[in-house]
User: What shape does this take?
Amino acid sequence: MGETGGNVQPLIRGCYGSPTCQAAPLSHTHNGIQAEYGEKTSGGYSLGVDLEVIGPDPVEGVSDIKSPKITKYNAGGMTIKAVFELLNNRKQWGLFHPHYSAKMDYALDGKLSEIAVKAALTINMPKWPGYGKGSDAQKATWDDMWAHLLVHEKKHHTKFTDAVKEFLKYINDMELSRAEVKELWARKKIEWQAMQDKFDDDTDHGAKQGVVFDADADPEPEPEPK
Assistant: This one.
């Protein structure tokens, strides 16, 4: 007996101590209440409850693309004509080359979770050893050609970086297996090279953008002695 006195009623009524009393299982009553409540509320919709379907986690895309490093090769010759002939023996006067790779990480379900594209870029440009001995006209046409060639090669760089950004954006909400990533990456590398080749074809490797020499820059040859 406690301080309040009298009989203490159990907080939960049941059939304690009675061999003939059978209480209804709580789970049956509880489930019945839940079903009835769900019917009256249309599964929660009549109360303003709306369940949003959550899609897969986005693929984290990271790019580490350095500014292009300028390298040079010798274009010998003492005249612009000689330099032009030497350059024309090459497939390209300037060359943008992206040394790039991708590192992929996968979630426990085998789907792509992160991809990091890393690139160290180079632009190979001509160097004229005879520049110091050239005339003002020869230097002027060389400088003009070289400046336009560099702009052309840097455009290759811009096209590459834009393509990588677009690729990372493209796969952001995709669920890709290892095999699918391998196939997609291989296809993108081919597409990117085709894009650069088309740019060279459309511009004639920069000739339509000013990558040309002034044929009149060389001095007139001295007359042969009689």
